[in-house]
Design brief:
The protein has helices spanning about 5-20, 45-50, 55-70, 90-100, 130-150, 165-180, 185, 190-215, 220-225, 230-240, 245-270, 280, 285-295, 330-345, 360-370, 405-425, 435-455, 480-495, 510-520, 520-530, 535-555, 565-585, and strands at about 30, 40-45, 75-80, 85-90, 115-120, 155-160, 275-280, 300, 305-310, 320, 350-355, 380-385, 390, 465. It has about 600 residues and is α/β, with parallel strands linked by helices. A five-stranded parallel sheet has the order 7-6-5-11-12, with helices on both faces. The protein has a four-stranded antiparallel sheet with strand order 1-2-4-3. The longest helix has 25 residues, at about 190-215. About 40% of the residues are buried. It binds one RNA strand of 77 nucleotides through helix 2, strand 10, helix 15, helix 16 and strand 14.
Amino acid sequence: MSVVLQVKEFAASAIKDLYGFEIAPSGILVNATKPEFTGDYTIVLFAFVKQLKKSPDVLGQELGEYLVKQHPDFYTSFNVIKGFLNLEIGDAYWQAFTQKEYSNTAYGIATTHKGKVMVEYSSPNTNKPLHLGHLRNNFLGWSIAEILKANGNDIVKTCIVNDRGIHICKSMIAWELFANGATPASTSTKGDHFVGDYYVKFNDAYKGQVKELVAGGMTEELAEKEAPIMKQAQQMLVDWEAGKPEVMKLWKEMNSWVYEGFDQTYKEIGSDFDKIYYESNTYLLGKDLVEKGLEKGVFYQKEDGSVWIDLTGDGLDEKIVRRKDGTSVYITQDIGLAEMKQKEFNADQSIYVVGDEQNYHFKVLKLICQKLGLPSADGIYHLSYGMVELPTGKMKSREGTVVDADDLVAELINDAKETTQAKLEERNALKEFSQEELDQLYKTIGLGALKFFLLRVDPKKKMIFDPKESIDIHGFTGPFVQYTYARIRSILRKEANANFATLSTSELLPLEKDVIKHLEQFADTIGDAANEHDPSKIAIYLFNLAQAFNTFYNKHSISNAESEDKKQLRLQLAQLTAQTIKTGMGLLGIQVPERM
RNA sequence: GGACCGGUAGCUCAGCUGGAUAGAGCAGCUGCCUUCUAAGCAGCAGGUCAUUGGUUCGAAUCCAAUCCGGUUCACCA
């Protein structure tokens, strides 16, 4: 049990013992004591002064005395200031904690089993390469999956690949028209970029044709419909749905190029999936559910034959679920896919990592599933995240301001290379690394900086990213945390033969205790991050931990500690800090270097 | 127009189930490397928490209104 929870439970039972008043531990407000007061944790008393008919001072005094008397191994002292009961927890308790956990490589990871969660993320279109926005999605999805796993859940990571539709046909038709049989191999181009280039070529040709038609006297609206290349793309979609062999062949081939490119990117950034769904297999799902919905009266049919649901009673609008021609719309296949996932994996919760522009869509999706009484309904959770914008505003593919994921990753790794080389030379340490180790190090730092940057902000907030400015390495950053880790590892290597274990008690210095208090909060932090689906909680925690350790490190020597006791304690503390950083950064998908 | 999200230091962000004098990082300024990696540490400076009103012992946090920015309300996905 965490210290904070322990404080709450002791307080709840003390209030019951003293005043016969039942109060839930979760109803007691406990904060970390402000540094200017004595104590570790503080109970805010105002909440119950009325019910207990006591003044805050009297209540604090009585409660404090009782708690210290009842739990002498836990509390050593208390003081009451203006309605705040400050409690000090004994050094012996903190030291026992350190002693117990310092060699635990699974420190912070939940051991109880909570449930099963599906996380759908990434979900790319197969007509163009990944960009900066996808990176936020991928890092968030991967991280929240790891966090939920660490909090005791079984995880199924999934991805729905949007591998069919008019956008794919655009790339396909442009390839037929302009490629002369070129392939990624023949042009030495990464497959997803290759296909993306033809998507761009389609749009260029299309724009040109529209312009010509308008010049010939056609209205723009009509020209956009009549442009020959657009009609060709639309025909190709019809042919695809009819399963026309040569279209299928081209579609399969171009998609395979894209997948090869995606695989490379996913490998580089560390995304992986347990189960991949393809829209080409799922786009017809949900039709039977429309029928069931009609029977149940959840849906209704209009005169033209189209099928709708009325959500105005829930503050939303009417939503179509089947066109008058009998074909289904986007949300219908999502309903079908939700059911399919449920049948296949029977998860307790199904998380969709999708941008906030689809907030309405997911609200509707969940509501419809609930009204249909589907077992998957209540578990639907939209992990909505804000767009990544440039200093100049939103990324626009038409204006060529889209930041390519591969390019960005390569740039940041190169930035890391330059900084790292300079730092290592400064310390005359470059020669200690093999070329292979160096390349790995640059990647670890560059990707670490990027992932930390994108994950340190509350997901639901939009964020601004300036690709022209390399990511900072000072302060609240990935490299700062990595550096803290590397320094600790350096000490631990030198002290590999030291005695860690036989600790006898001594008084803790304030900076020692501060690090231990941070360490103790790790499991609670994972719990918060999991409950709120928010990896930034982990990033902030790790930064605070690293900073607390650095402050301690700067002031007190580990190797040349004042006494053998102190050295052992500090070695334990350093090792547990390193382990916690490693585990915590792992939850963000960030590796940590042994030396840097 | 309806719905939803955001507005906290020059910049990027914490804090938001109401609690002590609103916190970090960056940028700016001062110090600290004969001692475990200075990608570090210590300090200074920087705020009408968008505005107005309300709820109460107490509001950045809750409520209402207003202003600003964004998203969405397709027989697109």
